Amino acid sequence: MTVPRVVLAEDDVLLREGLASLLDRSGFSVAGQAGDATALLDLVREHHPDLVLVDVRMPPTHTVEGLDAARTIREELPSVGILVLSAHADVGHAMELLAGGRGIGYLLKSRVADVGEFLDTLRRIANGGSVVEPALVQELVGARHRNDPLAALSAREREVLGLMAEGRSNAGIARRLWVTEGTVEKHVRSVLAKLDLPETTDDHRRVLAVLTYLDNRQG
């Protein structure tokens, strides 16, 4: 089994060292650590890792340096998985990242505390999956507008939609909801039909379609 190689970028030294230690103990190989976006890009170009873990806000201005670096990495090395960590949920940042293709994710730093879920997220991204911060998903799914097509969904279908948007497979949704995979497939087909979204076997296209639709409803 191939050990995923990771490059970390976080200017908080204690958090960065803690993440590196966690990953080393959990089946990952930390190829390098960076405290700013420039050093991150240098490490990625040198090591060509399987996965990059980067904070949105990095020196010198602590605005969107990490996001800019993620965009550059995706352009230069599209096969590298990217997980961006943020202290605050931002729909715009999440949507911009997801538009970059497979193997990409956006997560709140607070999610790192749930070690098992965090490591599962990293593995999913390293394997080409897309992961969205659950708080953003719930914000989008919970948005109510006049003539909102989400009103056509049942409570269970909205729950399935939220898990779909997090990037979970039908099997993963079935495990979370304690139902059969066949039941989930029926709910997914119903959700896609009610939202007038095309059926597809491509998990990433499914995530993008659902999130893009919901994000547009926010306006």
UniProtKB/TrEMBL annotation:
What is the name of the protein in this document?
Response regulator transcription factor
Which UniProt keywords are present, listed alphabetically?
Answer: DNA-binding, Phosphoprotein, Transcription, Transcription regulation
Specify the domain of life of the species encoding this protein. Bacteria
What range(s) does the Response regulatory domain occupy?
A: 5-124
Q: Which residues form the HTH luxR-type domain?
A: 146-217
Q: Which PANTHER family match?
A: TRANSCRIPTIONAL REGULATORY PROTEIN NARL-RELATED, TWO-COMPONENT RESPONSE REGULATOR
An example Pfam family from this entry, by short name, is Response_reg
Instruction: Report the InterPro entries cross-referenced here.
Output: CheY-like_superfamily, NreC/VraR/RcsB-like_REC, Sig_transdc_resp-reg_C-effctor, Sig_transdc_resp-reg_receiver, Tscrpt_reg_LuxR_C, WalR-like
Which species is listed as the source? Amycolatopsis rhabdoformis
Per the record, residues carrying 4-aspartylphosphate are: 55
